[in-house]
């Protein structure tokens, strides 16, 4: 092994990082430093500061994979210096991406012959995948309207109010009107009947969610398809469906195979899925696949040749790493159908353990469904003295990161806590989390209401007259949010 010693400005060797001047010198924060520092010191100082981050394994807010096998970690590091876009230089990596696209398309029942190549692409995540799918829908709609001699300047897309923010980004960035189906108490996904009613001749597609971010529920894509088939026949339109399967795409095929949501439905033209969620790969990989080549307009595909050969490309970015693509292929061949099924069944069973443990406290209403993404979303039955934000905050003392949030439009008076069950969340951790929730509840019961103690009347408003429970709850939520926001400002957190 080669031993390296870093020399300081005075020429002495630094044998111990903590014995050097670098641990007592302020690090650059706003402009690059004038001089270099030893690699050992740079590593140690940054590593120490990163200790203040949360533990990814205990981050129960995220759907994103936080554990992979050491063999896959090794593959990732061995390929981290490969730029995927250099297809001519890295033809095997390109082939591995194509294999992943073919496997995923067939997993979603694309109508392909045995050796036929699927149409799809790897992306940096489902956000990019959704942008690409949305652009394809918009261009197909525009081409059809132009051919018919009709206006094509006011496209719209129909979604539920529960969609992830990337759909709002798509609508704003690419000038498409977003028509949202509002939610209601007890029904936190898009109503297919209301969605079909909102469709008009300018609708480029209806986006259905297979695994709502809010409560994990699968939307009824089959009913939406049947309603649109009927409406298309009546109107002569050809309104298609995109399925946002970011969370559920690697779940439904393995444990809900009878559920019809994919290319078995004729109006489903494209599907996106996050490889870095239940595809079991670290953050940075998503996929979008189209039903047929005709569903992706040729004019959206660019061809370049300055990297050594003609290369078709359809992405929003250009350069990106190859590691996550290789990691996805590793998981697909390593686990196979049987392995993915076992993982998803384990997640579902651990979800049931956590759900039953929370129900036994008799303090919460369960908002999530038993069929869907393996997560538990729950809200307090009684908000008289404390709320979900306090529980979320106090659980951090035990290391758990459990988010509290309000529902979207027309259900915003509902506040929930959500725990996502990932591959690395065992039954032991589920039982420990329940025990810690019980501890937090007992501690809150011994404390005076934090809201009434910390807030003044001005935070809740001076409202006269009798109020319904919903009004009181909304005041509590708004007041608590203001308190948390003000306290973060005092702590210098942004």
UniProtKB/TrEMBL annotation:
GO terms for molecular function: calmodulin binding; glutamate decarboxylase activity; pyridoxal phosphate binding. Its EC number is 4.1.1.15. CDD domains: DOPA_deC_like (cd06450). It comes from the Eukaryota. The keyword Hydrolase does not apply. InterPro entries: Glutamate_decarboxylase, PyrdxlP-dep_de-COase, PyrdxlP-dep_Trfase, PyrdxlP-dep_Trfase_major. Its cofactor is pyridoxal 5'-phosphate. SUPFAM superfamilies: PLP-dependent transferases (SSF53383). Keywords: Calmodulin-binding, Decarboxylase, Lyase, Pyridoxal phosphate. GO terms for biological process: L-glutamate catabolic process. The modification N6-(pyridoxal phosphate)lysine is found at residue 277. It catalyses: L-glutamate + H(+) = 4-aminobutanoate + CO2. Belongs to the group II decarboxylase family. This is Glutamate decarboxylase. It comes from Brassica juncea (Indian mustard). The gene is GAD2.
């Amino acid at each position: 092994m080669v031993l390296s010693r870093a020399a300081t400005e005075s020429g002495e060797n630094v044998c111990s990082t903590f014995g050097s001047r670098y641990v007592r010198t302020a690090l650059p924060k706003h402009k690059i430093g004038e001089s270099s520092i030893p690699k050992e010191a740079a590593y140690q100082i940054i590593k120490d500061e990163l200790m203040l981050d949360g533990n990814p394994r205990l981050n129960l807010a995220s759907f994103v994979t936080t554990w992979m096998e050491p063999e896959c970690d090794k593959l990732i590091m061995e390929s981290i210096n490969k730029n995927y876009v250099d297809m001519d230089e890295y033809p095997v990596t390109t082939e591995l991406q194509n294999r992943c696209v073919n496997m995923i398309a067939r997993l979603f029942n694309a109508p392909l012959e045995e050796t036929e190549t699927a149409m799809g692409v790897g992306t940096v995540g489902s956000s990019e995948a959704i942008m690409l799918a949305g652009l394809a829908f918009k261009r197909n709609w525009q081409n059809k309207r132009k051919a018919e001699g009709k206006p094509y300047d006011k496209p719209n897309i129909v979604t539920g109010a529960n969609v992830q923010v990337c759909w709002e980004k798509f609508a704003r960035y690419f000038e498409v009107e977003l028509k949202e189906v509002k939610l209601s108490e007890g029904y936190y996904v898009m109503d297919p009947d209301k969605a079909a009613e909102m469709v008009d001749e300018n609708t480029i597609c209806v986006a259905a969610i297979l695994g709502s971010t809010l409560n994990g529920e699968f939307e009824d894509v089959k009913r939406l398809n049947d309603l649109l088939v009927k409406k298309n026949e009546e109107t002569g339109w050809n309104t298609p469906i995109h399925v946002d399967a970011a969370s559920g795409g690697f779940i439904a095929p393995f444990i809900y195979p009878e559920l019809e949501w994919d290319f078995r439905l004729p109006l489903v033209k494209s599907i996106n899925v996050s490889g870095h969620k239940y595809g079991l790969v670290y953050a940075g990989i998503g996929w979008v696949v189209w039903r047929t080549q005709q569903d992706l307009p040729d004019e959206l595909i660019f061809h370049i040749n300055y990297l050594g050969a003609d290369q078709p490309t359809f992405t929003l970015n250009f350069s990106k790493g190859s590691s996550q693509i290789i990691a996805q292929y590793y998981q697909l061949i390593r686990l196979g159908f049987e392995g993915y099924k076992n993982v998803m069944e384990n997640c579902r069973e651990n979800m049931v353990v956590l759900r039953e443990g929370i129900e036994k406290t008799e303090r919460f209403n369960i908002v999530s469904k038993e069929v869907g993404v393996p997560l538990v979303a729950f809200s307090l039955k009684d908000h008289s003295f404390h709320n979900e934000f306090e529980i979320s905050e106090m659980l951090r003392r035990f290391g758990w990161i459990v988010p509290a949030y309000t529902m979207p439009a027309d259900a915003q008076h509902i506040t929930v806590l959500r725990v996502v069950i990932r591959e690395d969340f065992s039954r032991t951790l589920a039982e420990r989390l329940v025990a810690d929730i019980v501890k937090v509840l007992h501690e809150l019961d011994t404390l005076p209401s934090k809201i009434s103690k910390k807030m003044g009347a001005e935070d809740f408003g001076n409202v006269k007259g009798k109020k319904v429970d919903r009004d009181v709850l909304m005041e509590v939520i708004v007041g608590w949010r203001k308190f948390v926001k003000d306290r973060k400002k005092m702590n210098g957190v942004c």
